[in-house]
Amino acid sequence: MRGGHVIALLAGLSGWGLHAACAEPARDERAEIAAGEYVAHAADCGACHTLPGHAPFSGGLAFHLPMGTIRSTNITPDPKAGIGGYSEAEFARAVRQGIRRDGATLYPAMPYPSYARMTDADVHALYVYFMKGVAPVAIPVAPNDIVWPLSMRWPLVAWRMMFVPSRDQAGQQVRRAFADPQLARGAYLVEGPGHCGACHTPRGIAMQEKALTAADGPLFLSGGGAVDGWNPVSLRGEARVGLGRWSEDDIVTFLRTGRVTHAAAFGGMTDAIRHGTQHMTEEDLRAIAHYLKSLPPARAEQATWRYDAATGRALHAGDLSARGARAYVDNCAACHRTDGHGYPTTFPPLAGNPVVMDASATSLIRIVLTGSVLHATHQAPSSFVMPGFAARMDDQAVADVVSFIRQSWGNAAQPVSASDVAAVRRSTQASTQGQEGAASSARQPMN
Amino acid sequence: MDATRLKPVDVVVIGGGWAGSIMAKEMTEAGQKVVMLERGPDRSTAVEGAYPGSIDELEGNYRYRLFQDLSKSTVTIRNNMRQRALPYRRMAAFLPGEGVGGAGLHWSGVHFRMPPDDLILRSKVIERYGKSFIPEGMNLQDYGVTYDELEPFFDRAEKVFGTSGEPYMINGQVVGKGNVFSPSRSQPFPLPALKDVHTAHLFRKAATEAGFHPYSMPAANASAQYTNPYGAQMGPCNFCGYCSGYACYMYSKASPNVNILPVLRRDPLFELRTHAHVLRVEMDSTKTRATGVTYVDREGRTWTQPAELVIISAFQFHNVRLMLLSGIGKPYDPVANEGVVGRNFVYQNVTTSFVWLNRNIETEQFIGTGGGGVAFDDFNSENFDHGPLGFVGGSPVWVNQAGVKAIAAAQAGGPPGTPRWGSAWKKGLVDTYRHSLRIDAHGANMAYRDVFLDLDPTWKDAYGLPLLRMTFDWKDNDIRMNRYVVDRIGEVARAMDARQVQLTRREFGVPFDTRKYQTTHLGGGAVMGTDPATSALNRYLQAWDVPNVFVIGANAFPQGTGYNPTGMVAALAYWSAYHIRQTYLKNPGPLVSL
């Protein structure tokens, strides 16, 4: 039913009615393909299965995990290199249960514990889209780079049995009682295709998400472990580190443009916006926002964030005695200002920014080291690039400036040490490629 | 040289600067498939603007990172027709850009509307002083378009550029403290004026005391963050001073790269080809219709891009040269006084005077914005009575503190009489850097019969094509104008209680010197007008003889202006595009019939 809802909505939006003169079946198929494409956006398939500069969905994106490197697969309809040989049932089983056509279990880098909740209608539309709306690419992806015995997939079967909801369980989760249809739709999108929890929910000892839906308790979307050196924050109602101070409008705008008065997107979220949420309808984004705002804080915070003007006053008066203050003024303040407010939505604020105040400073350190790109979206065509400072600042200097940022303007987060910075530097291999890294990641934006 | 023929497109745009980007945007909005050819590399804030490499003065202003590669192509220059011209091998007097964004990436940001009287200068001078007032040999002309006609397009350009400024009059009502000589506007500036730096503040005060009417210069350096009508965003200017010669790392200086291309690049109707050096516009056998353009790519391969409409929108003198190389319009012959392409080549008449203030005043010259500052227009355009003075033209006067950088400060050294070396030099340099300010007379340069552009008979570029030859020198009328206005600077300096003043006047008999930077504001050579005997383009910037060629740029100015040209170039681009969209595309042909 929801799939049908998506189809109806899209058909209304995109004016396929204009093609009514064409043969009926073709129009239906076009509508189905378009509906499937929408689901692919909602499920953010492109972020992992499309390598920048390569054919859509031809795979190859590397995930560097402690056990080795795995690569996203070619999911174009090529019968050999891609998934052209999959029947719809096989496709649905792979998407929702993580079982490959040959019966092997997929690595849970594929978020099938979330996709398990996708409706038959959405999976059907997705199947039609991948079979008929995506160009086949006959180039196989390089094999994964995991050494035996970790390369054996059979232990994944047990993992799958333990942590992936069955069709019945998933169905029950989707059909659970909600206060209103918008909330239900939001829950479906976030817990299902959107797979927000894959990054934003903490994982357990077996790398399983500790909660898969809001019904599983307050750990759901309470902030995840580092992904590719980025630290996903809580999407719950915490007033300092979560979305407590964000309005539903803020969330909608963020998912559409990556930039709001509170923050700017970075790291993996830029891909999620670029490939996914910017393509979603206003109605669906509102549903997501409404649902996220329904999630209470995971933990009681000491107090909400309140702006403290002392830092700005001191810097303005030329008092650079605080540790890291001089580096901040020399390197950061032009854009983020001495008062920490930045110039949103161009240059994000540091004062009160949830990412800055998060218990983990990993993201902040990484941004300082490698820089960051705020990508253009359909509704925000400008991209902005922050340069990386890895080549110019040593670990202690970065620690000082990050600590300064975390403790100024009322942020009151824990300082970081040079060894914290060194760890992030190692993990991002930023030490020698800082400037280069920013430039290469900036290859996309051209303004 | 066999060129490979490419798939035809609707419009080919030559040059990736302001004019080309505006035209490409307008044409894609009209549903046209557009290919933009830019001979230089692609450029972006992410690379050329990456802080702190972006603010390397040596790289920016001395190794000319964003400027034309003179080893491939340049111009030759001579002062008069008796001399043999020589190639301009080293950047100095003027700095043409190269690469996506063109001069629009390395410009400073000063963003004016043309004074209404400048657009009808010949008529105005004759009306006020009589025809005999025009000196012998001066080709004084009207533009063929009026301020009222251009007003909506000046407004459009300001909104796209995110221009900061203080209005004086909106729809006939005085609304603010802007330039009292400026014409009425339909809308305020999109952003408030930039704040005065200290020198501008002192100049404002002194100019007022001297009886003049200072105002905040309109600047396309954003005074606050801004989103333009295309949805492109700008950051706010932080007065770092790295505007002219640099890609702005704050995204706050308007450029095609920041303000238009982010949107254009996403448009499936638009294609940008870089390292595409256009050799000529191809013509059919009748020589009245362009069929496309031929260009060389980075690997030396030659391509012909067929197109229905050709827009020549490179830098001023490249436009003139392309017309001459392609046989569009009749080349100018100064002896017979016939022909139009190359005619009315003009420059700008700029001198910079120095004022040293008492040592308890820090002038903080490291701070700056390329477009900001304080000016007065009491001696610009027809704002003053030229009758008793006996010259045509005028000059705004301003403190446009664009940020004095380290190498430039060292080169400037100390006040007159200071040694060029040793501890006295160091002391003088510090004194100048800390306590002086600069005041420009940014004057107009009139057009003359024996100042022109043509193809050089001797020198060729890397592709075997003749270089463009400039024949240029200063004329008495313009020297007298400069000297009169610089004397007014002396009055302001006195009101500033200056410790020492160095008034820089243009001297009679001193020829145009290509070794010193003056300005990149070159103009004319393929001017717009209403008479095909004296203009290469009609009032819509359409080539008179080849109606499917439009030529957009400062080449269209019949004579120089005291203002910086970009605001006018952008407005002319929007004006031309409007008429192409409204009329030409529906019925291709001449927009003016004779």
TrEMBL record, chain B:
Source taxon at top rank: Bacteria
Glucose-methanol-choline oxidoreductase N-terminal domain segment(s): 145-347
PANTHER family xref list: LONG-CHAIN-ALCOHOL OXIDASE
GO terms, molecular function: flavin adenine dinucleotide binding; oxidoreductase activity, acting on CH-OH group of donors
UniProt similarity note: Belongs to the GMC oxidoreductase family.
Classification via SUPFAM superfamilies: FAD-linked reductases, C-terminal domain (SSF54373), FAD/NAD(P)-binding domain (SSF51905)
Organism: Novacetimonas pomaceti
Protein name: GMC family oxidoreductase
Residue span(s) of domain FAD-dependent oxidoreductase 2 FAD-binding: 10-44
Domain Glucose-methanol-choline oxidoreductase C-terminal, residue spans: 455-573
Protein keywords: FAD, Flavoprotein, Oxidoreductase
Entry keyword Oxidoreductase: yes
Pfam families: FAD_binding_2 (PF00890), GMC_oxred_C (PF05199), GMC_oxred_N (PF00732)
